[in-house]
Design brief:
By secondary structure, the chain is α/β, with parallel strands linked by helices. 45% of the residues lie in helices and 14% in strands. The protein has 17 helices and 14 strands. The N terminus is likely disordered.
Length: 480
């Protein structure tokens, strides 16, 4: 505060006050600190879009691929465009006459301004409206994005001032909200008839051999759980040293290499170089032992490793992120940025109980892990990818005579069992007894929402720490 020439104290406006939330008035104008500002809009461009989509079918088809009714600023324009979209979707001829009839049927003719509104649109539109409708539509879209950005900024200001979230949670909200403005949104509710038709078309495609989802390379396992599906959380759990990391490394490698799926492997246990050694060993068939004893490696093995390295550079779509510590908010931020920059078809987290979630005062670790599992499932839906989360099992299996794990052994949280779409428990009997099923492992599908459960036999190579498909021994050979 400082005295002015009249002797009264004047108050300097702070930066925070200059950024006070704005409130929209009845006329659409926005109030900020007492003044009113009209949000970004271009009514002339909106009118030209409407004229263009009514006059030119090709322009209409192009505009409808990216413009929505909500992108229009004026309510009457919004209603008209929604009717145009619905008429087009129903296969009806779209022109001024059919549009007027549709608005009458909806009881919205008066709301859009009556027939005078049509006259105003056509009379005020430019001669180039038909051919240039996509150009005008881009202008409308840009203005809509800016209005959304203003709304998002106001929401974030309110959240920050409310001070009922941690700074980290507020940052994650900010990133999701702002990044969401540049991401395509869903089409909203769909008629059940449209969905049943899609389901039957997908079934027919599967009958003809088309694969839907991310391939794992494990044939027998896919007979139960299928290829990995987007928006689903897969939990792979086992006791230490059974092969949780090896299993998910193999799946990630196959998805990124043979499947061509952009894959992000997030490790909180192994560093990047250790992971690279594992991937090279898997791909080349050379024991990772030689990375630590390189002076004695054979030329043939060195060549195989170099060849695998070249193939990774040429054919793999795998990225690795190692972190000593990682919060849920940071995980979401890295995954969203990676998807925006490189694309993302599969996210693997090794392992989920090493993630740090925001823990409420006095809350147990079990409560924290419960929120982690919920957020991972939410992340699968948000990113529209399958998420594989490795989990640790408690010691209960060690006390059983057969050491076989169950879902009740999931460490620290029964919520993991509830949130996961699919739970796969790994078991290697030879870990406890070298003579019990040597070279074999089992993937126990303990939960599979919407599908079957069961036990699958896999092969396990101890030297390469690699899981593979089990091959039945030929007649006369010793079976497992």
């Amino acid at each position: 505060n400082s005295p002015n020439p009249s002797g009264k104290t004047s108050r300097t406006t702070s930066a925070c006050e200059m950024a006070l939330p704005m409130f929209r008035g009845d006329d659409g104008a926005v109030s900020a600190g007492g003044g009113f500002r009209l949000p970004p809009q271009n009514l002339e461009a909106e009118a030209n879009v409407l004229a263009g989509v009514l006059l030119d079918a090709n322009a209409r088809f192009e505009v409808l691929t990216f413009l929505t009714p909500e992108d229009f600023y004026r309510d009457s324009h919004r209603r008209m465009f929604a009717a145009v979209r619905d008429l087009d979707g129903a296969g009806v001829v779209v022109d001024a006459v059919t549009l007027a009839e549709e608005l009458e049927r909806r009881g919205e003719m008066a709301a859009v301004g009556g027939l005078d509104a049509f006259a105003a649109i056509f009379n005020g539109s430019l001669p180039s409206a038909a051919s240039a409708a996509p150009h005008y539509a881009q202008i409308v879209k840009q203005k809509a994005i800016k209005r959304d950005l203003i709304d998002a900024s106001n929401e974030l200001l309110r959240v920050a001032y409310a001070d009922d979230r941690t700074a980290e949670e507020t940052l994650e909200l900010a990133e999701r909200r702002i990044l969401g403005l540049s991401q395509p949104t869903g089409d909203g509710p769909e008629p059940i008839a449209a969905l049943t038709r899609k389901a039957l078309e997908r079934m027919d495609a599967r009958r003809e051999g088309e694969v839907f989802g991310v391939p794992t390379g494990l044939i027998d396992l896919e007979r139960i759980v299928g290829p990995l599906q987007a928006r689903r959380l897969y939990v792979v759990a086992a006791r230490p040293s059974i092969g949780k990391s090896a299993f998910t490394l193999g799946v990630a490698d196959h998805a990124a290499f043979e499947g061509g799926v952009p894959t992000l492997f997030v490790s909180l246990e192994m560093d990047g170089l250790e992971l690279a050694e594992r991937f090279l060993s898997n791909r080349s068939g050379v024991d990772s032992y030689w990375f630590r004893n390189a002076a004695r490696i054979k030329d043939g093995d060195a060549y195989s490793l170099a060849d695998a390295d070249a193939r990774f550079a040429r054919d793999s779509r795998l990225h690795v992120f190692d972190a000593a510590e990682l919060t849920l908010a940071q995980l979401g931020a890295h995954a969203r940025r990676h998807k925006s920059k490189h694309g993302l078809g599969l996210l693997v987290i090794d392992y989920m109980q090493l993630l740090n979630g925001p823990r409420l005062k006095g809350e147990s670790r079990e409560g924290e892990v419960s929120r982690i599992s919920k957020r991972l499932r939410g992340l699968a839906k948000e990113l529209n990818v399958p998420v594989i989360a490795v989990a640790q099992l408690n010691r209960a299996a060690e006390q059983r005579s057969n050491h076989e794990p169950t879902m009740a052994d999931l460490r620290e949280s029964g919520q993991i069992e509830q949130d996961a779409n699919t739970v796969i428990l790994l078991h290697r009997p030879e870990y406890y007894d070298p003579n019990d099923h040597p070279g074999a492992a089992f993937a126990i599908v303990a939960k599979n929402r919407g599908g079957a459960t069961g036990k699958v036999r896999l092969a396990f190579n101890k030297h390469l720490t690699r899981f593979g498909n089990y091959v039945q021994p030929p007649p006369g050979a010793e079976a497992f």
